[in-house]
Amino acid sequence: MRIEQEELERQIVERMRIDNPWWTTGQIPMDIHMMEKRLYLDAFYKIVKDMTVRRGIVLMGPRRVGKTIIIYHTIERLISDGVDPQKIIYLSIDTPIYNGLSLERMMNIAKASLVKSVSDEDFYVFYDEVQYLKNWEIHLKSLVDTYRSTRFIVSGSAAAALKMKSDESGAGRFHDFTLPPLTFNEYIHLQGLGSLIVPKMIKWENRLIKAFDTVDITKLNNLFISYINYGGYPEVVLSKDIQQDPGRYLRRDIVDKVMLKDLPSLYGISDTQELYRLFIHIAYRSGCEFSYEEMSQESGINKEIIRRYITYLESAFLIKVIHRVDANAKRMQRITQFKIYLTNPSLRCALFSPLTETDKAIGSMVETALFAQRIQRNDEDIFYANWKMGRANGEVDMVGLDKLYQKPIWAVEMKWSDRYYDAPGELKSLLSFMDNNHLSEAIVSSRTRYGTKSLDHLNLTFIPSALYAYLLGYRTIAYKNN
């Protein structure tokens, strides 16, 4: 029995050395080194290096957004910043030979296997696919409390399960970092097409602010449509093979696994086929207004169960629920209607078919794409406005409320059309909302037109949707980096 145990530990150590080549070479694997880095790397690295607050870091996000790759690139940067490579440990919990080992036991075996003797302080320990270890959050909290000079980082693909466990057990001990699908400016960056974009200053509230223009709006719009169909996930962007059938890849590796593998039972969900059907219904109508009453009537599913499904899908980072304000930007006392957006529009393509720039559904997917660039920030509360306006309904697509005062500070109308550039007075709902809430400026996204139109004391800044998506993604990453 002792011989068998020694042989098992020898194999465990061998596996660890394979997974941690920098212990001997000082470098991460060359193929990963050659990959383009996600623009979120700076923000994530800053948190990893910040030792002023003793917390574990939980890297979460939807499947296939590059969480493991950003860990490797973080390790590479640690080494280049002078951290001893033998003080960096990477352990993937789904490795079969680690089965039954606690997080602490794995770390101690790794330390004992190092080529040279190093002090027991200032380690960086990365646990990948941590959802495969039962009660990982209890293990992690104990490690954070016990090893006070070691930085612990965990990540996993079961985003909803990670979020629930982190929220339940990590208060004051864990720092959550969400890695979203690709923003549009990351999509341009990963393909090396930054030369299409040029800086531009625009006037906003009597000051000049940084924005962007393009040398070829037709080409950029084509790329934007491609992003809407396929652009949310690095592997789709970088792999020619996957691009042959991206829908199958996205369904199999992202949607299906979230429904069937990522522990929906933690949210009290037993009927995964029913969950799947509801998600398909939502994905097809991304950007539309929903109510629990209508969803229940259409699907035959109890309203309370629908609430549970939506909570799970939102925790899994597949959807985002946006709530409503009225004409005076007052929040509804009773939530009866809301909008739901996919966190990335390419999920729709995975379930149905690619869209062209003239398809009827492209408008709602442009809106979804623009929301996807913005919802990772939490400096303002985002809503949409909807109210009775005579016999019709007034609506503004996106409204930002100041978190402290709950007053509107910006408004956006999202269009895939140049029509309103020549007829801005037709945007009656937006103009009325601006007047009611003392907003002198608002943004209207267009297809190709760029410029400002003034109506009395109200200014509408028109920006092509592709450029607005690029700007929103740029600002979101800048916000994360600050």
Outline the fold blueprint.
Blueprint: H1 2-19, H2 22-25, H3 30-33, H4 41-49, E1 56-60, H5 67-80, E2 88-92, H6 103-112, E3 124-128, H7 136-146, E4 151-155, H8 159-169, E5 174-178, H9 184-190, E6 197-204, E7 207-214, H10 217-230, H11 234-238, H12 240-243, H13 246-260, H14 272-284, E8 289-290, H15 292-299, H16 303-315, E9 319-325, E10 338-342, H17 346-351, H18 362-374, E11 380-389, E12 392-402, E13 408-414, H19 419-422, H20 428-436, E14 441-446, E15 451-455, E16 458-464, H21 465-481
Helix pairs in contact: 4-5, 8-16, 18-21
Keywords:
2 domains, alpha/beta, Rossmann fold, five-stranded parallel β-sheet, nine-stranded mixed β-sheet
Describe it for me?
- The chain has 482 residues and is of the alpha/beta class.
- The chain folds into two domains: 2-178, Rossmann fold, CATH 3.40.50.300; 184-481, no CATH class.
- 43% of the residues lie in helices and 21% in strands.
- A nine-stranded mixed β-sheet has the order 8-10-9-11-12-13-14-16-15, with helices on both faces. Strands 2-3-4-1-5 form a five-stranded parallel β-sheet, with helices on both faces.
- The N and C termini lie far apart (55 Å).
- The mean pLDDT is 89.
